[in-house]
Amino acid sequence: MRLAKGCHDEVLERPSTSGRFAIANTEVRIVDPEGNDALPGEVGEMIMRGETMMKGYWRNPEATAATFRNGWIHTGDLAQVDPDGYITLVDRMKDLIITGGQNVYSAEVENALAGHRAVADVAVVGRPHEEYGETVVAVVTLLDGHQVTLEELRDHARERIAYYKLPRELVIAQIPRNPSGRSSSPGSGMSFVTELQATHPGSDVLTSMLNRPGRRNSLNTFRPIHFGGPS
C-alpha cells in the first residue's frame, strides 16, 4: 500500500501505533515469510521502498543482498496492520522466541514484567530447549533493596500476556547498557554475552551463552535461579 502524510489528531487517538502514513514517495508493506501481504491483525515483517531509501551498505554486498530483495528493503521489524491501516510495531525479528510452535515477542514479555515493583530493568531471551525448541528466560536487574522470585514475576505478568509467553527461568543480573541507555541484548552479536559475563566473573549462574547467526543471543547452558516450567 502507498502511504501519505498523516495528521496530528490521529496520532493522539492511537498513541500505541506508529500511524498509518509513511513519508512522501515511500511505500510500506507488512508481509508474511512468503512475501505476501499480511492480513489485518497478523504479524509480519515491515518492508519498504521509495526514493528516500538507502541504496545499500557501504562495501558490504552480502548485507545489501540480504536486506534488499525484489526492490524492497527488509527492515527486520515485526509489525501488524489493523483494518483501518494503522501500523503497530511488535518486535525485532532477531528477538522472536519460538517455543512449542508459538511465537513469543520479547518486547511484549519485557513490557509485562517491567511494571513489577522489584524490577529496575529486564531483558527477555530464548534458551534452546530439546522439546519446545526454545524456552523463555527473563534477565532482571533488581531495584535496590528488593528481591523477586520467578513465580512472583509470572503472577504479575499472567494478567497481561498469554500463559505460554510467561518466563520459565529467571536470571538476576545487571543488564549491560550503552551510553545512550539502550540495552545491548537485542540482536547485538556477542556484546550482551561478554558484558554480562564480565559483570559476573566466576559466576556459576551464567556458565555459557549461545549466539546464533541472525538471532539475538540465547541463553544456552546455565543454572537458573528459579524454575517454573521446561528447562
Describe the structure.
With 231 residues, the protein is of the alpha+beta class. The chain folds into 2 domains: 8-85, Luciferase, Domain 3 (Luciferase, domain 3); 95-227, ANL, C-terminal domain (GMP Synthetase, Chain A, domain 3, 2-Layer Sandwich). It has 5 helices and 13 strands. It has helices at 8-13, 61-67, 106-114, 150-157, 191-199, and strands spanning 26-31, 43-50, 68-69, 72-81, 87-92, 96-99, 102-105, 119-129, 133-142, 169-172, 208-210, 218-221, 226-227. Strands 1, 2, 3, 4 and 5 form a 5-stranded antiparallel β-sheet that branches. A hairpin with a 2-residue loop joins β3 and β4 (72-81). The chain is globular, with a radius of gyration of 19 Å. The protein starts with 7 loop residues before the first helix and ends with a strand.
The percentage of residues in β strands lies in: 25-35%
Q: What is the name of the CATH superfamily of the largest domain?
A: ANL, C-terminal domain
Tally the helices. Answer: 5
Q: What's the helical proportion of residues? A: 10-25%
- Tertiary shape: globular
What is the correct CATH architecture of the largest domain? 2-Layer Sandwich
The CATH topology assignment of the largest domain is GMP Synthetase, Chain A, domain 3
Task: Provide mean pLDDT, rounded.
Answer: 79
**Count of individual domains:** 2
How would you characterize the largest beta sheet?
5 strands, antiparallel
CATH C-level class of the largest domain is Alpha Beta
Overall SS class: alpha+beta
Helix and strand element order = HEEHEEEEEHEEHEHEEE
Cα Rg: 19 Å
Number of strands: 13
State the end-to-end distance. Answer: 44 Å
Extract low-pLDDT stretches.
Answer: 1-6, 185-191, 202-231
